[in-house]
Design goal:
Length: 133
């Protein structure tokens, strides 16, 4: 091959090959620099993610506490509702006893049908009061 290319052209070819190789090395170095991770940036991202995880854990803890409070509140409401229904039954029994009706019947009617029983009992009592006048 050397016999077909003059010595001047050989040097030009060698220079061209070396230049191409140098440019290839520069491009390869640039590509590796672009793809290389920035450790400072990664460390800050890790710290940011850790703080977000901690924040989310705190929010979950707060939500669990709120869930516990809601459960307790629901339990309290059920207890108050039971007490209210019992009081309505007792009111119906007392009112029925005062007007000569069966107190036990009106007590259980008051417990099972609280709003309706109270309305019926009040209308019966008002009718009884009118008839006594």
């Amino acid at each position: 091959m050397a016999s077909y290319i003059s010595s001047g052209k050989q040097e030009d070819c060698i220079q061209q090959i070396l230049g191409t190789h140098a440019r290839y090395s520069e491009i390869n170095f640039w590509i590796t620099q672009q793809n290389a991770p920035n450790t400072n940036n990664l460390e800050s991202q890790i710290a940011n993610l850790e703080s977000q995880v901690t924040s989310l854990k705190n929010e979950v803890s707060n939500l669990e506490y709120l869930k516990y409070q809601v459960y307790n509140l629901e339990d309290d409401v059920r207890q108050v509702g039971g007490i209210a229904v019992f009081c309505i039954g007792a009111f119906c029994a007392l009112s029925a006893q005062n007007t000569g009706r069966n107190a036990w019947l009106w007590f259980f009617l008051g417990i099972f049908f609280a709003p309706i029983t109270v309305i019926v009992l009040l209308t019966k009592n008002s009718a009884d009061k009118r008839s006594q006048r």
